[in-house]
Amino acid sequence: MSTQQLWARYLPGLVAAVGGAAMIVAPPRPRRITFTVLATLLGLVCMEAEYWVASGFPRSEVLFFVGAIAVTLAALAVGSVGTMILGLVGLLFFAYVNLRYGAPYLLDYIMLVFYALLIAWSRRTLNWFRSGIFAVGRPEAIAVIAVEVLAAWRTSALDKWGWIAGGHWR
Prior knowledge:
By secondary structure, the protein is mainly α.
């Protein structure tokens, strides 16, 4: 496998990671939630690009993709409660998919972080936090670390690392 082909595999995930990080860090605090939602949208677009690189355009994913974008935009329109729900649904969805099927894509790991940040910042805005373990960011960080570790284990158990390493996608 050539270096150019490997680069094509990583490019969508890197675009989402760098672009999403820039969107999350750059805006002022009052706009942070809005830009985190936009980072999740960028991640969804890059996720479809990553699938396209792996196995061609996934026509079966079109309905899911359109639905995910519609739900994301609706959450943004609803406000903090909507973005909190979006964060929870996104985190639970990616946790389920990553643990059920393994996570051989870079974006499987990145999207979890975006949704966890969305939960944390929405909780702060809604004033839904306490001190100690329930401080803003702690439960989300624990959830992301646990899912990331379990997803890496599950991906290894299903022997799906080959695609990232340059092998054929399964």
